Amino acid sequence: MGSSPLAALIAAAILAPLPARAAATQDKEGKDGKMNFAFVLLSAPKLPPGEAIEHAFPAYALKGQTLRYRPEKQDKAKKGDDEALILKTEGGQAMVMLLPSPIPKGEADDAVRYSMSALDGKWKLPPHKAHLVVTLHVPGDATARLSLFTSVLAAVAEASGAVGIYWGAAGATHEAKFFREVAKSRTALARLMLWTGISTAREGQRLSLLSLGMKQFDLPDLLLVVPPAKSDDAIPFMLDLLGMIVESGKPLPEGDTVGRSATEKLKVHYVPSPVDPKDKVWRVEMSER
Question: Which of 51, 135, 150, 181 is within CB 3.0–4.6 Å of 37 for a Cys-Cys bond?
Answer without folding.
Answer: 135
